[in-house]
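Protocol step 6 of 9: fold each sequence in the batch and record its C-alpha coordinates directly after the sequence line. For illustration, a two-sequence batch is reproduced in full.

Sequence one:
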Amino acid sequence: MSQLKQLTAVVYGTVQGVSFRYYTQQMARRLGVAGWVVNQRNGTVKTVAEGDEATLQEFLAFLHEGSPAARVQRVDATWSEATGAFSTFSVRFRDV
Protein backbone atom coordinates (compact mmCIF):
# COMPACT_ATOMS: atom_id res chain seq x y z
CA MET A 1 0.00 0.00 0.00
CA SER A 2 1.39 3.39 -0.94
CA GLN A 3 1.91 6.03 1.71
CA LEU A 4 -0.31 9.08 1.45
CA LYS A 5 1.26 12.50 0.99
CA GLN A 6 0.14 16.08 1.33
CA LEU A 7 0.85 18.64 -1.38
CA THR A 8 0.64 22.35 -0.59
CA ALA A 9 0.87 24.53 -3.69
CA VAL A 10 0.68 28.27 -4.36
CA VAL A 11 -0.11 29.19 -7.96
CA TYR A 12 1.03 32.54 -9.38
CA GLY A 13 -0.13 34.36 -12.50
CA THR A 14 -3.59 35.19 -13.84
CA VAL A 15 -5.36 32.65 -11.67
CA GLN A 16 -8.21 34.56 -10.03
CA GLY A 17 -11.43 35.39 -11.88
CA VAL A 18 -10.75 32.67 -14.47
CA SER A 19 -12.60 29.70 -12.85
CA PHE A 20 -9.29 28.33 -11.53
CA ARG A 21 -10.80 27.11 -8.25
CA TYR A 22 -13.70 25.40 -10.04
CA TYR A 23 -11.42 23.54 -12.46
CA THR A 24 -9.07 22.64 -9.62
CA GLN A 25 -11.94 21.15 -7.62
CA GLN A 26 -13.15 19.19 -10.64
CA MET A 27 -9.67 17.78 -11.30
CA ALA A 28 -9.15 16.89 -7.64
CA ARG A 29 -12.46 15.07 -7.53
CA ARG A 30 -11.70 13.24 -10.78
CA LEU A 31 -8.36 12.11 -9.36
CA GLY A 32 -9.83 11.23 -5.96
CA VAL A 33 -7.70 13.57 -3.87
CA ALA A 34 -9.02 15.39 -0.81
CA GLY A 35 -8.28 18.91 0.41
CA TRP A 36 -9.17 22.46 -0.56
CA VAL A 37 -8.41 25.44 -2.81
CA VAL A 38 -8.73 29.17 -2.03
CA ASN A 39 -8.02 32.56 -3.60
CA GLN A 40 -5.50 34.48 -1.52
CA ARG A 41 -5.50 38.23 -1.00
CA ASN A 42 -2.21 38.65 -2.89
CA GLY A 43 -3.74 37.35 -6.15
CA THR A 44 -2.42 33.79 -5.90
CA VAL A 45 -4.38 30.58 -5.46
CA LYS A 46 -3.42 28.15 -2.69
CA THR A 47 -4.35 24.50 -2.53
CA VAL A 48 -3.72 21.69 -0.08
CA ALA A 49 -4.36 18.18 -1.35
CA GLU A 50 -3.84 14.69 0.03
CA GLY A 51 -3.55 11.41 -1.83
CA ASP A 52 -0.95 8.99 -3.10
CA GLU A 53 2.16 10.61 -4.52
CA ALA A 54 1.61 9.55 -8.15
CA THR A 55 -1.90 11.01 -8.15
CA LEU A 56 -0.69 14.22 -6.52
CA GLN A 57 2.02 14.52 -9.19
CA GLU A 58 -0.78 14.43 -11.80
CA PHE A 59 -2.69 17.07 -9.79
CA LEU A 60 0.44 19.22 -9.62
CA ALA A 61 0.86 18.95 -13.40
CA PHE A 62 -2.70 20.26 -13.77
CA LEU A 63 -1.88 23.22 -11.49
CA HIS A 64 0.89 24.24 -13.88
CA GLU A 65 -1.75 24.52 -16.64
CA GLY A 66 -4.87 25.61 -14.73
CA SER A 67 -8.22 26.52 -16.20
CA PRO A 68 -8.53 27.39 -19.91
CA ALA A 69 -8.44 31.16 -19.21
CA ALA A 70 -5.64 31.00 -16.62
CA ARG A 71 -2.08 32.08 -17.29
CA VAL A 72 0.08 30.28 -14.76
CA GLN A 73 3.50 31.86 -14.22
CA ARG A 74 4.79 29.51 -11.55
CA VAL A 75 3.77 27.02 -8.89
CA ASP A 76 5.55 26.73 -5.55
CA ALA A 77 4.97 23.25 -4.12
CA THR A 78 5.89 21.66 -0.81
CA TRP A 79 5.40 18.05 0.24
CA SER A 80 4.70 16.52 3.64
CA GLU A 81 3.02 13.49 5.16
CA ALA A 82 -0.76 13.38 4.89
CA THR A 83 -2.77 14.32 7.96
CA GLY A 84 -6.00 12.58 7.00
CA ALA A 85 -7.91 15.74 7.88
CA PHE A 86 -9.90 15.90 4.62
CA SER A 87 -12.67 13.65 3.31
CA THR A 88 -13.55 15.62 0.14
CA PHE A 89 -12.09 18.42 -1.97
CA SER A 90 -13.72 21.81 -1.47
CA VAL A 91 -13.49 25.41 -2.60
CA ARG A 92 -12.85 27.80 0.24
CA PHE A 93 -14.15 31.31 -0.20
CA ARG A 94 -11.90 33.02 2.34
CA ASP A 95 -8.17 32.93 2.87
CA VAL A 96 -7.83 31.78 6.48
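Sequence two, same batch, same settings:
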Amino acid sequence: MKTRTRRSALLAGALSAALVAISAFGAAAQDGGTAKVRVLHASPDAPAVDIYADGALVLENVAFGVASSYLEVPAGPHQFQVVATGTMPADGAVIDATIDLAADTMTTVAATNNLESIEAQVIADAPAPVADAVQVRVGHLSADTPAVDIAPDGGEEIVQGLAYPTVTDYLTIPEGQLDVELRPAGAVDGWVALNPGGVLLANGHSYSIFAIGSLDEGTVRLLTLIDAVAPPAMAKVRVLHASPDAPAVDVYADGAAVLTNVPFGVISDYLEVPAGDHLIQVVAAGADPADGAVIEATLSFAADTMTTVAATNAVAAIEAQVLADAPAPMKGKAQVRVVHFSADAPAVDIAPDGAKVKKAIIKELAYPNATEYLALPAGAYDLEIRAAGAAETAFDIDEVTLDAGTSYTVFAIGSLADGTFTVLPVVDATLAAE
Protein backbone atom coordinates (compact mmCIF):
# COMPACT_ATOMS: atom_id res chain seq x y z
CA MET A 1 0.00 0.00 0.00
CA LYS A 2 1.65 3.27 -1.06
CA THR A 3 1.35 6.82 0.07
CA ARG A 4 3.49 9.83 -0.76
CA THR A 5 3.11 13.07 1.02
CA ARG A 6 5.77 15.56 1.98
CA ARG A 7 3.43 18.19 3.13
CA SER A 8 0.01 16.87 3.83
CA ALA A 9 -2.81 19.20 4.45
CA LEU A 10 -6.30 18.02 5.20
CA LEU A 11 -8.82 20.62 5.97
CA ALA A 12 -10.56 19.82 9.19
CA GLY A 13 -11.62 23.34 10.10
CA ALA A 14 -11.84 24.35 6.47
CA LEU A 15 -14.67 21.90 5.97
CA SER A 16 -17.15 24.64 6.80
CA ALA A 17 -16.12 26.49 3.66
CA ALA A 18 -15.54 23.17 1.95
CA LEU A 19 -19.09 21.96 2.28
CA VAL A 20 -19.61 23.57 -1.09
CA ALA A 21 -17.84 20.44 -2.28
CA ILE A 22 -20.73 18.25 -1.37
CA SER A 23 -23.03 20.00 -3.80
CA ALA A 24 -20.45 19.60 -6.54
CA PHE A 25 -20.05 15.89 -5.86
CA GLY A 26 -23.76 15.48 -5.29
CA ALA A 27 -24.54 16.83 -8.72
CA ALA A 28 -22.74 13.85 -10.20
CA ALA A 29 -24.39 11.31 -7.89
CA GLN A 30 -25.72 8.22 -9.62
CA ASP A 31 -26.92 4.78 -8.68
CA GLY A 32 -23.36 3.44 -8.62
CA GLY A 33 -22.99 3.92 -4.88
CA THR A 34 -20.74 6.24 -2.92
CA ALA A 35 -17.16 6.34 -1.69
CA LYS A 36 -15.40 8.24 1.08
CA VAL A 37 -12.32 10.34 0.47
CA ARG A 38 -10.19 12.64 2.62
CA VAL A 39 -7.28 14.89 1.71
CA LEU A 40 -3.97 15.33 3.54
CA HIS A 41 -1.44 18.16 3.04
CA ALA A 42 1.95 16.56 3.71
CA SER A 43 4.29 18.64 1.55
CA PRO A 44 6.50 20.36 4.15
CA ASP A 45 7.58 23.44 2.17
CA ALA A 46 4.38 23.95 0.21
CA PRO A 47 2.13 26.88 1.13
CA ALA A 48 -1.48 26.44 2.18
CA VAL A 49 -3.53 25.07 -0.68
CA ASP A 50 -7.02 24.97 -2.10
CA ILE A 51 -8.36 21.68 -3.44
CA TYR A 52 -10.74 21.36 -6.35
CA ALA A 53 -12.74 18.27 -7.26
CA ASP A 54 -14.27 18.08 -10.71
CA GLY A 55 -13.71 21.81 -11.07
CA ALA A 56 -15.42 22.82 -7.80
CA LEU A 57 -13.66 24.14 -4.71
CA VAL A 58 -14.05 21.55 -1.95
CA LEU A 59 -11.32 22.41 0.56
CA GLU A 60 -9.86 25.85 1.15
CA ASN A 61 -6.69 27.18 2.78
CA VAL A 62 -5.44 23.77 3.86
CA ALA A 63 -2.11 24.05 5.67
CA PHE A 64 0.72 21.54 5.98
CA GLY A 65 -0.09 18.80 8.47
CA VAL A 66 -3.86 19.17 8.17
CA ALA A 67 -6.23 16.43 7.05
CA SER A 68 -9.87 16.82 6.13
CA SER A 69 -12.70 14.71 7.38
CA TYR A 70 -13.98 12.06 5.03
CA LEU A 71 -16.23 13.43 2.31
CA GLU A 72 -18.86 11.13 0.82
CA VAL A 73 -18.82 11.28 -2.97
CA PRO A 74 -20.38 9.35 -5.83
CA ALA A 75 -18.31 6.34 -6.81
CA GLY A 76 -16.34 6.75 -10.02
CA PRO A 77 -13.54 8.89 -11.43
CA HIS A 78 -12.95 12.39 -10.02
CA GLN A 79 -10.42 15.02 -11.04
CA PHE A 80 -8.52 16.44 -8.05
CA GLN A 81 -6.50 19.65 -8.47
CA VAL A 82 -4.29 21.21 -5.80
CA VAL A 83 -3.39 24.91 -6.14
CA ALA A 84 -1.83 27.55 -3.92
CA THR A 85 -4.55 29.18 -1.85
CA GLY A 86 -6.27 31.97 -3.75
CA THR A 87 -5.21 30.81 -7.21
CA MET A 88 -7.30 29.04 -9.84
CA PRO A 89 -6.69 25.64 -11.46
CA ALA A 90 -6.63 27.41 -14.84
CA ASP A 91 -3.49 29.22 -13.68
CA GLY A 92 -1.74 25.90 -13.11
CA ALA A 93 -2.16 23.20 -10.46
CA VAL A 94 0.73 21.72 -8.51
CA ILE A 95 -1.18 18.43 -8.55
CA ASP A 96 -3.73 17.48 -11.20
CA ALA A 97 -4.84 13.84 -11.02
CA THR A 98 -7.93 11.83 -11.87
CA ILE A 99 -8.66 9.18 -9.24
CA ASP A 100 -11.21 6.40 -9.63
CA LEU A 101 -13.02 5.81 -6.35
CA ALA A 102 -14.81 2.47 -6.11
CA ALA A 103 -18.15 2.15 -4.32
CA ASP A 104 -18.02 1.49 -0.57
CA THR A 105 -14.31 2.30 -0.30
CA MET A 106 -12.37 4.78 1.83
CA THR A 107 -9.37 6.64 0.41
CA THR A 108 -6.79 9.13 1.63
CA VAL A 109 -5.30 11.41 -1.02
CA ALA A 110 -2.07 12.97 0.25
CA ALA A 111 0.13 15.68 -1.27
CA THR A 112 3.73 14.73 -0.40
CA ASN A 113 7.38 15.59 -1.11
CA ASN A 114 8.80 19.11 -1.44
CA LEU A 115 6.95 21.62 -3.56
CA GLU A 116 9.30 21.31 -6.52
CA SER A 117 8.70 17.54 -6.59
CA ILE A 118 5.18 17.46 -5.11
CA GLU A 119 3.15 14.36 -5.89
CA ALA A 120 -0.17 12.77 -5.02
CA GLN A 121 -0.30 9.59 -2.98
CA VAL A 122 -3.52 7.57 -3.16
CA ILE A 123 -3.88 5.43 -0.05
CA ALA A 124 -6.56 2.77 0.30
CA ASP A 125 -8.09 2.88 3.77
CA ALA A 126 -9.72 -0.31 5.08
CA PRO A 127 -10.30 0.16 8.81
CA ALA A 128 -12.09 -2.57 10.75
CA PRO A 129 -12.20 -1.36 14.36
CA VAL A 130 -12.98 -3.78 17.19
CA ALA A 131 -14.34 -2.87 20.59
CA ASP A 132 -11.60 -4.40 22.75
CA ALA A 133 -8.39 -3.46 20.92
CA VAL A 134 -6.64 -0.74 18.95
CA GLN A 135 -6.12 -0.98 15.20
CA VAL A 136 -3.27 1.12 13.85
CA ARG A 137 -1.16 1.45 10.72
CA VAL A 138 1.90 3.57 10.02
CA GLY A 139 2.73 5.52 6.87
CA HIS A 140 6.14 6.89 5.86
CA LEU A 141 5.39 10.22 4.17
CA SER A 142 8.66 12.07 4.76
CA ALA A 143 10.39 12.04 1.36
CA ASP A 144 13.91 12.87 2.57
CA THR A 145 13.89 10.41 5.48
CA PRO A 146 15.46 6.98 4.75
CA ALA A 147 13.67 3.72 5.47
CA VAL A 148 12.96 3.29 9.17
CA ASP A 149 12.13 0.68 11.73
CA ILE A 150 9.30 1.75 14.02
CA ALA A 151 9.15 0.72 17.66
CA PRO A 152 7.64 1.75 20.95
CA ASP A 153 10.23 3.98 22.64
CA GLY A 154 12.96 1.61 23.81
CA GLY A 155 11.07 -1.49 22.69
CA GLU A 156 11.27 -4.00 19.90
CA GLU A 157 10.30 -2.97 16.39
CA ILE A 158 6.69 -3.41 15.34
CA VAL A 159 7.47 -2.31 11.76
CA GLN A 160 10.77 -2.89 9.94
CA GLY A 161 12.25 -1.26 6.86
CA LEU A 162 9.36 1.13 6.15
CA ALA A 163 10.36 3.34 3.25
CA TYR A 164 8.76 6.43 1.72
CA PRO A 165 5.94 6.44 0.60
CA THR A 166 4.77 3.10 2.01
CA VAL A 167 1.89 2.54 4.42
CA THR A 168 1.67 -0.64 6.50
CA ASP A 169 -1.35 -2.85 6.92
CA TYR A 170 -3.38 -2.33 10.06
CA LEU A 171 -1.89 -3.85 13.22
CA THR A 172 -3.80 -4.79 16.37
CA ILE A 173 -2.25 -3.56 19.63
CA PRO A 174 -3.41 -2.89 23.22
CA GLU A 175 -4.81 0.54 24.01
CA GLY A 176 -2.76 3.17 25.81
CA GLN A 177 0.13 5.54 25.21
CA LEU A 178 2.33 4.64 22.26
CA ASP A 179 5.64 6.54 22.28
CA VAL A 180 7.01 6.04 18.80
CA GLU A 181 10.68 5.87 17.87
CA LEU A 182 11.90 5.98 14.26
CA ARG A 183 15.17 4.12 13.84
CA PRO A 184 17.38 3.86 10.76
CA ALA A 185 16.60 0.61 8.95
CA GLY A 186 19.86 -1.37 8.81
CA ALA A 187 23.11 0.58 8.63
CA VAL A 188 22.30 4.16 7.67
CA ASP A 189 24.93 6.85 8.22
CA GLY A 190 24.31 10.47 9.00
CA TRP A 191 21.36 10.34 11.36
CA VAL A 192 20.25 8.66 14.53
CA ALA A 193 16.93 7.45 15.88
CA LEU A 194 14.15 10.03 16.03
CA ASN A 195 11.54 10.19 18.76
CA PRO A 196 8.87 12.41 17.23
CA GLY A 197 6.47 11.95 20.14
CA GLY A 198 3.69 9.70 21.32
CA VAL A 199 0.00 9.17 20.78
CA LEU A 200 -2.75 7.98 23.09
CA LEU A 201 -4.68 5.18 21.42
CA ALA A 202 -8.11 3.98 22.56
CA ASN A 203 -9.89 0.67 22.10
CA GLY A 204 -12.55 0.63 19.43
CA HIS A 205 -10.60 2.99 17.14
CA SER A 206 -8.70 2.49 13.89
CA TYR A 207 -5.84 4.95 13.38
CA SER A 208 -3.40 6.00 10.72
CA ILE A 209 -0.11 7.40 12.04
CA PHE A 210 1.76 9.27 9.30
CA ALA A 211 5.37 10.37 9.66
CA ILE A 212 5.51 13.74 7.87
CA GLY A 213 7.93 16.64 7.62
CA SER A 214 11.58 16.91 6.57
CA LEU A 215 14.59 15.19 8.07
CA ASP A 216 16.88 17.85 6.56
CA GLU A 217 14.87 20.64 8.16
CA GLY A 218 14.41 18.78 11.45
CA THR A 219 10.61 18.92 11.20
CA VAL A 220 9.76 15.21 11.15
CA ARG A 221 6.70 14.55 13.31
CA LEU A 222 3.75 12.24 13.61
CA LEU A 223 0.25 13.00 12.39
CA THR A 224 -2.40 10.72 13.90
CA LEU A 225 -5.76 10.40 12.15
CA ILE A 226 -8.83 8.44 13.23
CA ASP A 227 -9.96 6.29 10.32
CA ALA A 228 -12.99 4.71 11.97
CA VAL A 229 -14.62 4.06 15.34
CA ALA A 230 -16.39 0.84 16.24
CA PRO A 231 -20.08 1.31 16.94
CA PRO A 232 -20.87 1.02 20.64
CA ALA A 233 -21.63 -2.47 21.89
CA MET A 234 -25.35 -2.72 22.53
CA ALA A 235 -27.66 -4.62 24.85
CA LYS A 236 -31.42 -5.21 24.72
CA VAL A 237 -33.64 -4.37 27.69
CA ARG A 238 -37.39 -4.53 28.22
CA VAL A 239 -39.45 -3.38 31.21
CA LEU A 240 -42.44 -5.13 32.85
CA HIS A 241 -44.88 -3.47 35.24
CA ALA A 242 -45.84 -6.35 37.56
CA SER A 243 -46.69 -4.50 40.80
CA PRO A 244 -50.44 -5.12 41.07
CA ASP A 245 -51.47 -2.12 43.19
CA ALA A 246 -49.00 0.40 41.76
CA PRO A 247 -50.30 3.14 39.46
CA ALA A 248 -49.13 3.57 35.90
CA VAL A 249 -45.45 4.50 35.84
CA ASP A 250 -42.82 6.31 33.83
CA VAL A 251 -39.41 4.72 33.41
CA TYR A 252 -36.24 6.79 33.20
CA ALA A 253 -32.80 5.65 32.05
CA ASP A 254 -29.86 7.91 32.88
CA GLY A 255 -32.23 10.79 33.53
CA ALA A 256 -34.20 10.52 30.29
CA ALA A 257 -37.77 9.18 30.05
CA VAL A 258 -37.77 6.00 27.95
CA LEU A 259 -41.26 4.69 28.73
CA THR A 260 -44.29 6.69 29.88
CA ASN A 261 -47.65 5.85 31.44
CA VAL A 262 -47.02 2.10 31.64
CA PRO A 263 -49.91 0.35 33.48
CA PHE A 264 -49.83 -2.90 35.44
CA GLY A 265 -49.55 -5.99 33.26
CA VAL A 266 -47.79 -4.30 30.34
CA ILE A 267 -44.33 -5.21 29.09
CA SER A 268 -42.36 -3.05 26.67
CA ASP A 269 -40.65 -4.17 23.51
CA TYR A 270 -36.91 -4.63 23.79
CA LEU A 271 -35.05 -1.32 23.77
CA GLU A 272 -31.47 -1.16 22.50
CA VAL A 273 -29.08 0.57 24.91
CA PRO A 274 -25.29 0.92 24.99
CA ALA A 275 -23.71 -1.85 27.05
CA GLY A 276 -22.56 -0.74 30.48
CA ASP A 277 -24.02 0.79 33.62
CA HIS A 278 -27.32 2.69 33.54
CA LEU A 279 -29.33 4.43 36.24
CA ILE A 280 -32.90 3.11 36.06
CA GLN A 281 -35.67 5.04 37.86
CA VAL A 282 -39.37 4.18 38.07
CA VAL A 283 -41.80 6.90 39.13
CA ALA A 284 -45.56 7.36 39.16
CA ALA A 285 -46.69 8.55 35.73
CA GLY A 286 -46.10 12.29 35.44
CA ALA A 287 -43.87 12.52 38.51
CA ASP A 288 -40.34 13.94 38.51
CA PRO A 289 -37.53 11.51 39.45
CA ALA A 290 -35.97 14.35 41.44
CA ASP A 291 -38.96 14.14 43.81
CA GLY A 292 -38.24 10.50 44.54
CA ALA A 293 -38.48 7.25 42.61
CA VAL A 294 -40.27 4.10 43.77
CA ILE A 295 -37.42 2.15 42.20
CA GLU A 296 -33.92 3.52 41.65
CA ALA A 297 -31.07 1.20 40.77
CA THR A 298 -27.89 1.24 38.73
CA LEU A 299 -27.93 -1.82 36.52
CA SER A 300 -25.17 -3.18 34.29
CA PHE A 301 -26.04 -4.65 30.91
CA ALA A 302 -23.38 -6.66 29.08
CA ALA A 303 -22.93 -6.40 25.34
CA ASP A 304 -25.15 -8.61 23.18
CA THR A 305 -27.38 -9.64 26.09
CA MET A 306 -31.14 -9.48 26.57
CA THR A 307 -32.64 -8.50 29.93
CA THR A 308 -36.08 -8.08 31.46
CA VAL A 309 -36.36 -5.54 34.29
CA ALA A 310 -39.60 -5.98 36.24
CA ALA A 311 -41.22 -3.99 39.02
CA THR A 312 -42.84 -6.60 41.30
CA ASN A 313 -44.58 -6.95 44.68
CA ALA A 314 -47.11 -4.56 46.19
CA VAL A 315 -46.25 -0.87 45.94
CA ALA A 316 -45.41 -0.69 49.65
CA ALA A 317 -42.68 -3.30 49.11
CA ILE A 318 -42.00 -2.75 45.42
CA GLU A 319 -38.74 -4.15 44.12
CA ALA A 320 -36.82 -4.51 40.89
CA GLN A 321 -36.25 -7.95 39.44
CA VAL A 322 -33.52 -8.33 36.81
CA LEU A 323 -34.00 -11.38 34.63
CA ALA A 324 -31.43 -12.57 32.10
CA ASP A 325 -33.14 -13.55 28.86
CA ALA A 326 -31.34 -16.08 26.68
CA PRO A 327 -33.82 -17.27 24.08
CA ALA A 328 -32.57 -19.73 21.47
CA PRO A 329 -35.53 -20.46 19.19
CA MET A 330 -35.44 -23.89 17.60
CA LYS A 331 -36.54 -25.05 14.20
CA GLY A 332 -39.57 -27.35 14.47
CA LYS A 333 -40.14 -26.76 18.20
CA ALA A 334 -41.35 -24.08 20.55
CA GLN A 335 -39.29 -22.87 23.47
CA VAL A 336 -40.89 -21.59 26.68
CA ARG A 337 -39.98 -20.63 30.22
CA VAL A 338 -42.18 -19.61 33.15
CA VAL A 339 -41.47 -16.80 35.60
CA HIS A 340 -43.14 -16.53 39.04
CA PHE A 341 -43.61 -12.80 39.72
CA SER A 342 -46.66 -12.97 42.03
CA ALA A 343 -45.24 -12.08 45.46
CA ASP A 344 -48.15 -13.43 47.56
CA ALA A 345 -48.59 -16.67 45.62
CA PRO A 346 -46.95 -19.85 47.01
CA ALA A 347 -44.59 -22.05 45.09
CA VAL A 348 -46.48 -23.69 42.24
CA ASP A 349 -46.53 -26.65 39.87
CA ILE A 350 -47.69 -26.25 36.28
CA ALA A 351 -49.27 -29.21 34.54
CA PRO A 352 -51.42 -30.06 31.52
CA ASP A 353 -55.09 -29.67 32.36
CA GLY A 354 -56.24 -32.70 34.39
CA ALA A 355 -52.81 -34.32 34.61
CA LYS A 356 -51.73 -36.06 37.78
CA VAL A 357 -49.33 -34.40 40.21
CA LYS A 358 -46.39 -36.42 38.98
CA LYS A 359 -47.14 -35.32 35.40
CA ALA A 360 -46.46 -31.64 36.15
CA ILE A 361 -44.04 -30.18 33.61
CA ILE A 362 -42.83 -27.51 36.07
CA LYS A 363 -42.53 -28.20 39.79
CA GLU A 364 -42.07 -26.01 42.87
CA LEU A 365 -41.54 -22.71 41.10
CA ALA A 366 -41.40 -20.00 43.76
CA TYR A 367 -41.37 -16.19 43.67
CA PRO A 368 -39.33 -14.54 42.10
CA ASN A 369 -37.70 -17.39 40.19
CA ALA A 370 -37.75 -18.45 36.55
CA THR A 371 -37.42 -21.81 34.88
CA GLU A 372 -34.91 -22.54 32.15
CA TYR A 373 -36.24 -22.47 28.62
CA LEU A 374 -37.97 -25.76 27.81
CA ALA A 375 -38.28 -27.22 24.31
CA LEU A 376 -41.86 -28.34 23.56
CA PRO A 377 -43.72 -29.54 20.49
CA ALA A 378 -45.53 -26.67 18.81
CA GLY A 379 -49.28 -26.54 19.33
CA ALA A 380 -52.07 -25.51 21.70
CA TYR A 381 -51.70 -26.12 25.45
CA ASP A 382 -54.34 -26.15 28.22
CA LEU A 383 -52.43 -25.72 31.47
CA GLU A 384 -53.28 -25.27 35.12
CA ILE A 385 -51.36 -23.85 38.05
CA ARG A 386 -51.45 -25.69 41.38
CA ALA A 387 -49.88 -25.13 44.76
CA ALA A 388 -46.65 -27.13 44.74
CA GLY A 389 -47.37 -30.81 45.39
CA ALA A 390 -51.18 -30.37 45.37
CA ALA A 391 -53.67 -31.97 43.01
CA GLU A 392 -56.28 -29.17 43.11
CA THR A 393 -56.26 -26.51 40.40
CA ALA A 394 -55.57 -23.02 41.70
CA PHE A 395 -55.63 -21.20 38.37
CA ASP A 396 -56.53 -22.26 34.85
CA ILE A 397 -54.39 -20.82 32.09
CA ASP A 398 -56.32 -20.01 28.97
CA GLU A 399 -55.28 -22.09 25.98
CA VAL A 400 -51.81 -20.99 24.85
CA THR A 401 -50.63 -21.65 21.33
CA LEU A 402 -46.89 -22.10 20.97
CA ASP A 403 -45.42 -21.73 17.49
CA ALA A 404 -42.39 -23.59 16.19
CA GLY A 405 -39.27 -21.47 15.91
CA THR A 406 -40.43 -19.10 18.66
CA SER A 407 -39.17 -18.57 22.22
CA TYR A 408 -41.69 -17.45 24.85
CA THR A 409 -41.74 -16.31 28.45
CA VAL A 410 -44.93 -16.80 30.47
CA PHE A 411 -45.02 -14.42 33.46
CA ALA A 412 -47.27 -15.19 36.44
CA ILE A 413 -48.06 -11.74 37.88
CA GLY A 414 -50.58 -10.02 40.12
CA SER A 415 -51.93 -10.89 43.56
CA LEU A 416 -53.94 -13.85 44.81
CA ALA A 417 -55.28 -11.75 47.66
CA ASP A 418 -56.91 -9.08 45.51
CA GLY A 419 -57.82 -11.33 42.59
CA THR A 420 -55.44 -9.75 40.09
CA PHE A 421 -53.38 -12.90 39.59
CA THR A 422 -52.94 -13.61 35.89
CA VAL A 423 -50.46 -14.91 33.36
CA LEU A 424 -48.79 -12.88 30.64
CA PRO A 425 -47.26 -14.80 27.71
CA VAL A 426 -44.79 -12.80 25.58
CA VAL A 427 -42.53 -13.57 22.64
CA ASP A 428 -38.81 -13.29 23.40
CA ALA A 429 -37.41 -14.16 19.97
CA THR A 430 -38.21 -15.92 16.72
CA LEU A 431 -36.04 -17.63 14.14
CA ALA A 432 -35.02 -15.32 11.33
CA ALA A 433 -36.90 -16.01 8.14
CA GLU A 434 -34.85 -18.09 5.70
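Proceed to step 7 once all outputs are recorded. Observation for sequence two: The chain has two helices and 33 strands.
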